[in-house]
Amino acid sequence: MAIALNTLVAEADRYLNAARIADYCPNGLQVEGRPQVRRIVSGVTASQALLDAAVEAEADVILVHHGYFWKNEDARVVGMKQRRLKTLLTHDISLLAYHLPLDVHPEVGNNVQLARLLELTIEGPLEPDNPKSVGLVGSLDSPLTPVDFMHRIHEALGREPLMIEGSGLIRRVAWCTGGAQGYIDQAVNAGVDAYLTGEASEPTVHVARENGLSFFAAGHHATERYGVQALGDYLARRFAIEHLFIDVPNPV
């Protein structure tokens, strides 16, 4: 079965409420390909490796979290950008990308999906007074030591996170997928026992240590594999088309 590309895009835009979320890049259809869609290939980032794998898989649409045309990006179509766009245009494949709308969605969002993987009960936003809050706060069913929580992350995501061990057991957790280490101050203010994100920076370590907070950096890529899969599955069910997630490994 096939669905019209514009119908697919309209549903994804509607479902993610994309038009109402200010972002650093255009959300939705970034490159237009063939008008009919039978197969979606999803992945975290629209890298050349993902594009090549999608061509091999005979995709009509590539659905990603990290697409193109970021704010302050060089607008010239040269080098790597030229090669990527040439691959899409030569093979008549559409690129569909959602950044913040896919982070914050209450059903298929990266942060909600990570909570399900780690068996965290969501309590609310990390910044309750900020309507644009991306991160979440939640709790574990029973307290865990930092090492035991690290093992849970490792088992769920398939990679061992960087850990800064805090001063006690972990009951309440704040988290925000991707490169959100800067939200650690909000996690401290929220009074949680641990903060989990994708990346770490030099100051993050000191903030965690000096506040007795356990901190986990589980990988930008690894923490953001799940929202795009859930969105692809939703669209596949909605329109009775095929969906294949392709993971291009990334150590960061």
Structure description:
Belongs to the GTP cyclohydrolase I type 2/NIF3 family. One of its GO terms (molecular function) is metal ion binding. The strands form 3 sheets. The protein has a 6-stranded mixed beta sheet, with helices on both faces. The mean pLDDT is 97. Strand 10 (170-176), helix 7 (184-189) and strand 11 form a beta-alpha-beta unit. The chain has helices spanning 5-16, 48-56, 79-90, 100-104, 110-118, 146-157, 184-189, 202-210, 220-223, 226-239, and strands at 3-4, 28-31, 36-37, 39-45, 61-66, 94-97, 121-125, 136-144, 162-164, 170-176, 194-197, 214-217, 242-245. The two termini are 37 Å apart. The protein has 10 helices and 13 strands. By secondary structure, it is of the alpha/beta class. 44% of the residues are buried.
The CATH superfamily name of the largest domain is NIF3 (NGG1p interacting factor 3)-like
Assign a percent range to the helix content. Answer: 25-40%
Determine Rg (CA atoms, Å).
Answer: 19 Å
Please give the number of β-strands: 13
Strand content: 15-25%
Structural class from helices and strands? Answer: alpha/beta
CATH topology of the largest domain: Udp-n-acetylmuramoylalanyl-d-glutamate--2,6- Diaminopimelate Ligase, Chain: A, domain 1
The description of the largest β-sheet is: 6 strands, mixed
The total count of helices amounts to 10
Order of strands across the widest beta sheet? Answer: 7-8-10-11-12-9
Number of domains: 2
| General form | elongated
Order of helices and strands: EHEEEHEHEHHEEHEEHEHEHHE
Q: What are the segments in which pLDDT stays under 50 over at least 5 consecutive residues?
A: none
- Mean pLDDT rating: 97
